[in-house]
Amino acid sequence: MRHAALSALVGLLAVTGLAAKSPKRGLAAVSNKDWPEDDAIWVREGSPISWYYNFHWNVSDTYATLAQDRIEFVPMLWGGGVNDTDFLRNMTAMIEPAEGSGPSARNITHVMGFNLPDQPFEHGGSQMKPADAARAWVRNLVPLREKFGVKLGLPVVGDPRGGWIDPFLKNCSALNKDKDCEFDFVPFHALGHFGVLKDRVGSFSSAFPGVPLWVVEYGYNDQNLSTTQEYFNQSLSFLEDNKDVARYSWFGSFRSTVSNVGPNMAMLDPWGNLTDIGSWYLGGNATGNAAMPNDTPRTNACSAEHPCTGGGENAEVSVSAGGLGLWAGAGAALLFLL
Ligand SMILES: *[C@@H]1O[C@H](CO)[C@@H](O)[C@H](O)[C@H]1NC(C)=O
Ligand SMILES: *[C@@H]1O[C@H](CO)[C@@H](O)[C@H](O)[C@H]1NC(C)=O
Ligand SMILES: *[C@@H]1O[C@H](CO)[C@@H](O)[C@H](O)[C@H]1NC(C)=O
Ligand SMILES: *[C@@H]1O[C@H](CO)[C@@H](O)[C@H](O)[C@H]1NC(C)=O
Ligand SMILES: *[C@@H]1O[C@H](CO)[C@@H](O)[C@H](O)[C@H]1NC(C)=O
Ligand SMILES: *[C@@H]1O[C@H](CO)[C@@H](O)[C@H](O)[C@H]1NC(C)=O
Ligand SMILES: *[C@@H]1O[C@H](CO)[C@@H](O)[C@H](O)[C@H]1NC(C)=O
Ligand SMILES: *[C@@H]1O[C@H](CO)[C@@H](O)[C@H](O)[C@H]1NC(C)=O
Ligand SMILES: *[C@@H]1O[C@H](CO)[C@@H](O)[C@H](O)[C@H]1NC(C)=O
């Protein structure tokens, strides 16, 4: 009796939890050490978000206890790994942990390789020569695909062909006993107006026909609210409907006060409440919470206790008598280039 009732309840929760999930919709997780509580918002009951990445090899603290079928963690080999196999070792320990070694096995099915290796460090890139990246790929990623069937994402670069990717793939097959270095999906960024998104999806899909595309950072940066919201609606329908796009993640999982892409792309207002865009992304209705309200901060937005210097990833913010002043850190502003 008790068992039947319990499993009916568990079944119901599983169904309601899963029914709301969107297989495409994900989270580009940008945590801020000043407000770790914000991280829980994206995975609350009924959230349609089905996967996340955090630019890092390990899970985010807040999601560490959530299994892959609750929200899929996609690790990233951000950069480096040229002369070591640390990433391979870390992934192996995650997929097949030694007995009694700590966390239980995590069924990793997708991994992303290198974030903007075609860009210098000072612009937020991982600054890798194609030949070095190929070595890191063959050492760390090829074995994950061969041994565990993990699907690999091509490095995130600006140009689908030419410049960086072609020499990378050539170096890679030369190192890989002349076998092509295979990949299973192609992640990239699209910041700018709607035409930019359409162009990038078009050019990546012609460069890699039939390979699933992941738009892992997108948005129309530094626009007023109405333009940003119009873009948000238009881009979301486009990405949902486009057959070549397998996954997408809006860039905005942070408070407007620490945004380096303009406040209106942020999914949280200065107090950590969802903005309209944030709520829409989670399948809810408009909240009416403005990204940058005109009034002075009321609560824990920016204060002596919370000086709002950001977690390092985002812009710096100052509090002045007139309210919130916002400027992008020179380096940070370029962190998320196309
Ligand atoms: C990975 O992250 C989890 C959750 O925060 C943590 O418990 C674990 O120690 C981390 N693993 C390593 C090797 O740092
Ligand atoms: C990798 O090893 C090569 C050859 O030993 C060396 O020249 C290179 O500097 C090393 N690269 C890194 C990033 O450590
Ligand atoms: C691997 O895990 C160790 C902690 O055990 C961490 O220090 C290191 O940065 C990780 N390296 C990679 C490339 O995943
Ligand atoms: C891992 O997840 C994939 C996709 O959901 C599934 O096909 C596979 O059976 C799972 N593997 C294990 C060992 O649970
Ligand atoms: C390998 O990469 C280097 C740059 O890192 C490039 O100069 C060279 O042409 C590439 N090799 C091939 C065969 O494309
Ligand atoms: C928002 O920006 C767009 C494009 O720059 C402009 O056409 C529009 O008038 C602006 N709207 C408001 C309310 O400022
Ligand atoms: C965007 O879509 C929401 C419904 O999801 C709607 O309420 C809102 O008016 C739309 N805004 C624009 C600018 O299209
Ligand atoms: C916004 O957040 C503050 C502080 O966490 C809370 O007191 C307030 O009720 C929230 N407002 C809305 C509209 O959710
Ligand atoms: C959104 O608003 C509509 C109409 O007011 C309401 O029926 C619906 O339950 C609301 N949805 C959520 C998720 O609050």
From TrEMBL:
GO terms of biological process kind: fungal-type cell wall polysaccharide metabolic process
The keyword S-adenosyl-L-methionine is annotated on this UniProt entry: no
SUPFAM superfamilies to which the protein is assigned, alphabetical: (Trans)glycosidases
Signal peptide (residue range): 1-20
GO cellular component, one term: fungal-type cell wall
Pfam families noted in UniProt: Glyco_hydro_cc
Record protein name field: Glycosyl hydrolase catalytic core-domain-containing protein
Phylogenetic classification of the source organism: Eukaryota, Fungi, Dikarya, Ascomycota, Pezizomycotina
